[in-house]
Amino acid sequence: MVTASNPQLSDYMQSVRVEVESELAEITRFHSDCPNILEQAIRYTLLAPGKRLRPILVFMASEACGQRTSATLDCACAVEMIHTYSLIHDDLPAMDDDAMRRGQPACHIQFGEANAILAGDALLAYAFQVVSSSDSSSEVCAACCRELAIAAGPCHLVGGQVDDLAAEHQDGDLSQLQHIHQRKTGSLFRVSLKLGGLAAGADSEQIDHLDTYGKYLGLAFQIVDDLLDCNGDQQWLGKQIGKDTEHGKLTYPRLRGMEASRNDAQELIHQAIEELNSFGGAAESLRQLASYVLERNN
Ligand code: GRG
């Protein structure tokens, strides 16, 4: 599983993971109207070992803005559900056609394509139920739902995925690639940070700083992901490597080479950390997480 070389960060990440996973396990035991096979397909990928980075960002953002609230946990679960839905759908034959995810056969391999599509659909909808039922003011719930809808919607996550698929085996330039990465990967990072801020009652200036931090962090994370697809360890990653080349994907290593890509990621992490200055010590875990993104091996 994920280990950050910094023990303090590693313990922190593990404690959030335990809290979020236990909540996810509890809230995905549905009413008997939910078919058993659907509940199983949902829990199979959602509860499989993921890094839980987006929930961790929600927690860290709330703390940077002064406090965790019960909405922090709800928002953390919601972003993990939307992320998991996107992974399940991305693995389908019509998309990236991956047989392995989170160290186990992908959802459609285990439960069939129809059930995998429907498990993803259910997770997307359920995420909004969880956030809108949160024990927060109706203004905070509405703001969180709106931000989530934008991030998961046509101009962000889904739009990025469409452009990513369309760019396969095509020539493209760095700005096109960044535009894809910012939406496909960056949107969920950014909304995790915003939701963490909103759950803690952050002001708009704090939200803007968190958002900009997320923009740099998300792009750096995706560059590292592109690098790991070239030189990572399949067992650590829990998925097949070399898929980007196989699919003729537009990636950082393809456009920039390995060394320049790593330097770009380093520069982005530096910019991300700079963005946290106004939070002082309350954002220390976000600083540490930024450094972890560069060193990660899964
Ligand atoms: C189907 C709408 C839709 C979108 C799919 C998530 C996604 C978009 C594609 C998956 C492939 C990919 C490389 C996406 C970039 C984001 C990314 C690196 C996802 C994997 O996130 P991790 O590494 O996964 O945080 P875990 O399993 O640790 O949660």
Notable traits:
298 residues; mainly alpha; two-stranded antiparallel sheet; 15 helices; 2 strands; globular; binds geranylgeranyl diphosphate
Can you give a write-up of this model?
This protein has 298 residues and is mainly alpha-helical. It has helices at residues 7-27, 36-46, 53-64, 70-90, 107-111, 113-132, 138-152, 157-166, 174-199, 204-231, 234-237, 243-246, 252-256, 258-274, 284-295, and strands spanning 100-101, 104-105. A two-stranded antiparallel sheet has the order 1-2. The protein is globular, with a radius of gyration of 18 Å. The model has no long low-confidence stretch (mean pLDDT 94).
Write the layout of secondary structure elements.
Layout: H1 7-27, H2 36-46, H3 53-64, H4 70-90, E1 100-101, E2 104-105, H5 107-111, H6 113-132, H7 138-152, H8 157-166, H9 174-199, H10 204-231, H11 234-237, H12 243-246, H13 252-256, H14 258-274, H15 284-295
Antiparallel strand pairs: 1-2
Geranylgeranyl diphosphate binds near residues 86, 87, 90 and 184.
Tally of strands? 2
Our estimate of the beta-strand percent is: under 5%
| Overall mean pLDDT | 94
Shape: globular
Fraction of residues in helices? Answer: over 70%
Bound chemical compounds: geranylgeranyl diphosphate
Major sheet characteristics: 2 strands, antiparallel
Strand order of the largest sheet: 1-2
How do the SSEs run, as a string of H and E?
Answer: HHHHEEHHHHHHHHHHH
User: What is the tally of helical segments?
Assistant: 15
- Structural class of the helices, strands and pairings? mainly alpha
Radius of gyration: 18 Å
Distance between the termini: 8 Å
Stretches where pLDDT is under 50 for at least 5 consecutive residues are none
